[in-house]
Each structure stands twice: as C-alpha cells, then as structure tokens.
Amino acid sequence: MKEILNFSFFIFTFLILQTNLFAQSIENYRVNTMSLNQSSIANNTYIDINLNPASLSYLQSTEIYGNIQRKFNITKLNVNTLGILIKTPLGNMGIQYNNFGFANYIQHIYQLSFARKLSKAWCMGLSASMICRKLPEPYIQDYNLMIDLGSIIKLGKKVNAGISYSYIAALSSNKTTYFGNAKLGISWKMLPSSSLYMGIISRESTVMNLNFGYEQSITSFGKLFFGLGFFPESISGGFQLVYKHIAFYFSAYWQKELNYTPSVGSSYIFKPSLLHQQH
C-alpha cells in the first residue's frame, strides 16, 4: 500500500509541474542517455545530471568523463562536454562544462551539482547552470540561469520511479522570461542482466514526449542499449565497453524527418573495483 501511495504522489507532482511549460530546456545528455532515447529518468546505475541530478547520489567512485555529440551529423554542430563526479561522505558533487556553436552562435554552460541519499529508498539532487550565449546583432550576448531539481525513489526491489524539473530564467537586456520542463520515469530491472525504462518529458504545456529504453548486459564488460520514442517518433541504440579504469560509449539517435545524431564518450573511474556497480 505504501508503494502505491508513493507512486501516486509522483504522478500528482508531475502533473502539477508540467503545466504552463512553454519551451525546451538546454539539452546536453550523456551518451547512454541518448542510447536509451532519454527514457532513463529513474536510472540508478548510469549517472546523467542533465537528465536527473538525483542519479548523482548513486555514484560509487569519483569519475572524469567527456563526450562529443554531433547534432544531426552536421560537422559544425558538435556539442562538447567535460565533467568530473566526486564522491564525498556528505554527498556527491558534479562539475561540468559544455560548449556548442558555430560562427554566429556560441554557447557555454557551466554547471555545478550536488546529490545525496536521504534514505535507503529515496534520494534527491540539485543542479545549477549558467548558460552564456553569444548571438548575432542586435542581441550580442545573453545569460541564462537553469536550476534542475530531481528525485529517485524505490518502489520495490526491482522498480524505481524518478522525477525531475528544470526551471530556466532567460535573461536579456530588455526582458526576462521564465520556462522549464518536467520529466517522469520508471525503471524495471527485469533480470540481473536486463532493465526496461519508460520516460515522459513535458517541454510545453501541450507537448509531451513518450520514450522507452532497453538495456542488456552481454558480458561482464559490455552492454547494449536500445530506445524508441513517440511525439516525435525516434529510435536509438548504442553500446558500452569497460576495461579496468576506462569506459567507452557510443550511441546513434534518429528522429523523424531529421538526420541521425551520433555521440561518443569515455570515462575514467578512479576505483575500478566499483566499476561494475556503477555501470
């Protein structure tokens, strides 16, 4: 009964948060998130502070990572990310830098995150980002502040629920606008070697994306990922390989009427004995 009440609370909170949202947030997801079609909002094994900052609370070892995403496979639309995740006794911290741009548009994102477990079944995370953009005249340059708040709760031994909300203040010389998005997800560990994900992302008051993901371990050092999305239609896939301290990731994401978006990334894990727990 308690698990049902917890899940009902998540649904109710999500429906409140998703109202009056009118724009898409800045998205620079990590590689496995793209492989799973952004469905892994309740994931507690792969850390992506951009999808849900609460996932940082499950960090097992300090990690340095980087990834490159080529939007729609266009050379000049690379999104470059570099970050470090730090495990501490009081909670886990994340520092990330991201840049994207071409001749007439340059964007830099500086991000700081913190997350911790509040109980064996519940964790929360908070992320703050400063987004600096250089735009063509007459805008020249503007600044945006983004706050992400997320939570993951265990509904049972094999089922997790996750929720995340992004609040963005878009600042300019003549006005300030506010917008955000909400995310809700469920994860189910069907077998010790496989997991199923479902995620809903609300980017506007009338627009919701429904995404599904499947994760399959193939060896002690490799995983395969598949994803399927609706509104708009999309499909994704990728793999992960790990050896001692090093993890390597690749994904390809296709969206209807657009070219595919490839992503590659790598991580250095400071304690390799914990690598299988984290990934």
Summarize the topology:
Elements: H1 2-17, H2 31-35, E1 63-70, E2 78-88, E3 91-102, E4 105-117, E5 122-134, E6 141-154, E7 159-171, E8 176-191, E9 194-204, E10 207-219, E11 222-230, E12 234-243, E13 246-255, E14 261-269, H3 275-278
Helix content: under 10%
Largest sheet: 14 strands, antiparallel, barrel
| Whole-number mean pLDDT | 83
SS-based structural class?
mainly beta
Assess the beta-strand content as a share of residues.
over 45%
Strand order of the main beta sheet, please?
1-2-3-4-5-6-7-8-9-10-11-12-13-14
* Outline: globular
Give the H and E element order: HHEEEEEEEEEEEEEEH
Unreliable runs, pLDDT <50, ≥5 residues? Answer: 4-25
Query: Terminal Cα separation, in Å?
Result: 32 Å
Q: Quickly count the helices.
A: 3
Write down the Rg: 18 Å
Number of strands: 14
What report would you give on this structure?
By secondary structure, the chain is mostly beta strands. 9% of the residues lie in helices and 58% in strands. The protein contains three helices and 14 strands. A 14-stranded antiparallel β-barrel has the order 1-2-3-4-5-6-7-8-9-10-11-12-13-14. A hairpin with a 4-residue loop joins strand 4 and strand 5. About 8% of the residues have low confidence.
